[in-house]
Amino acid sequence: MVQVSNDGVMFAKNSDREANEAQIIEWRAAADHAQGERVACTHISIDQALRTNAVVLCRPWWMFGAEMGANEHGVVIGNEAVYTTVPDGEAALLGMDLVRLALERSRSAHHAVSIIVELLEQHGQGGSCSATRANYTYHNSFLVADRTSAIVLETAGTLWASEVVSGARSISNGLTISPFAAQHARRSKDRTVSCALRQEMTQLASERSRSPLDLMAALRQHPNGEQPSWSPLYGSLGGPCAHYGGVLTSSQSTGAFVADLRNGIDLFATATSGTCLSLFKPVAINEPIELGTPSDRYDDQSLWWRHERLHRSAMSNSSAARESIARQRDEFEAEVVRGTWKSAQAFTRAQALEDSWWDLLDSDVRDERPSYVQQRGARLNRLAQLN
């Protein structure tokens, strides 16, 4: 989601990925590079830029690219998977690679779009977008913003269309720019991933948002209210805050990111999964924090996996416990947005608060989620070696 107003720009995104795909918050300092140097992206290598910006990235643990992030010039980018009638190509750049490369090389939103288009036309997009499903591929749409403007960029193979944002705008897992969408959208797949329903919710939320807290709340929306609900086929993809459980789609929100660019570059990230039970903390471009180096296996030294253990326990617990967590979450984030704590201090306080949430869980409560959700959760836990 993005909102462009006379006051400036606000941006927000959930990262909807496979449930065991831990996400890393990564800081990269600005750097100079030698002529002829190459950079190894997820599937291919390309020429490196002579100068790369300082960036903070939210990326799946196994790939070069990022789902979302920001650079030192106040450019923020997020991507969404889209499914088109253009055949998938050979291994090339992923949409996530394009997000990272544009953040590392651009100085404005329009500059970032030109970089993505140039790289797309030169190298194409293709290759597996999953660490576990070799044949899972898709094309991408992008929401690109800076302190004064925002642009939607949609692609189908090496084809593309762009639209400058006026007011509020959201994107989901379907093409939206006419007539590009009419020509290239795969409507059957759009229905499978429930993209229209999610976009309707996020579009309305982006129009109404007045602060980063509003955007955080928007990313936490479920289809039927505060608590998640599930479909046997599509899990909980009916809302922006996704949880595993469906047969056809069983992903979840593995990270979330909000940028307030109205009076500087104020960035907030969960660095954890399950947006409704995560805490947004402030992150700064040049202030790295040690959060562990997760993979797809449980690791007690990783913030993402420590939270994921709590998140999965809470999801199988009572709604009353989750409501208590949500109240404390909202109080914490109000302090965060007021600037009460700097980044490292906020992460420390967040960990202490999450540790206290275990006391809110009832060890005797019955898991009331549908049986197919419980079965999927048990399988995911075995794969992650998570007890």
Structure characterization notes:
This protein has 387 residues and is an alpha+beta fold. The chain is built from ten helices and 17 strands. Strands 3-8-9-10-11-12-13 form a seven-stranded antiparallel sheet, with helices on one face. It has a six-stranded antiparallel sheet with strand order 14-1-2-15-16-17. α1 crosses α2. It is 31% helix and 22% strand. It has one domain: Penicillin V Acylase, Chain A (4-Layer Sandwich), CATH 3.60.60.10.
* Largest sheet strand order: 3-8-9-10-11-12-13
Continuous helix count: 10
| Largest sheet descriptor | 7 strands, antiparallel
Compressed to H and E, one letter per element, the order equals: EEEEEEEEEEHHEEEEHHHHEEEHHHH
Radius of gyration: 20 Å
CATH superfamily placement: Penicillin V Acylase, Chain A
Fraction of residues in H or I helices: 25-40%
Q: Got a strand count?
A: 17
Tell me, rounded to a whole number, the average pLDDT.
95
Secondary structural class: alpha+beta
Give the end-to-end Cα distance, rounded to a whole number of Å.
36 Å
Q: In CATH's first tier, which class applies? A: Alpha Beta
CATH topology: Penicillin V Acylase, Chain A
**Low-confidence segments, ≥5 residues, pLDDT <50?**
none
What is the CATH architecture descriptor?
4-Layer Sandwich
What count of structural domains?
1
Q: Classify the beta-strand content into a percent band.
A: 15-25%
List the helices and strands and how they pair.
Blueprint (H helix, E strand, L loop, with lengths): L1 E4 L2 E11 L4 E6 L2 E2 L5 E3 L4 E3 L3 E2 L2 E6 L7 E4 L4 E7 L12 H11 L3 H15 L15 E7 L4 E7 L2 E6 L3 E2 L10 H5 L2 H6 L2 H14 L3 H8 L31 E10 L5 E4 L11 E3 L19 H13 L3 H19 L5 H15 L13 H14 L3
Antiparallel strand pairs: 1-2, 1-14, 2-15, 3-8, 4-7, 5-6, 8-9, 9-10, 10-11, 11-12, 12-13, 15-16, 16-17
Helix pairs in contact: 1-2, 5-6, 8-9
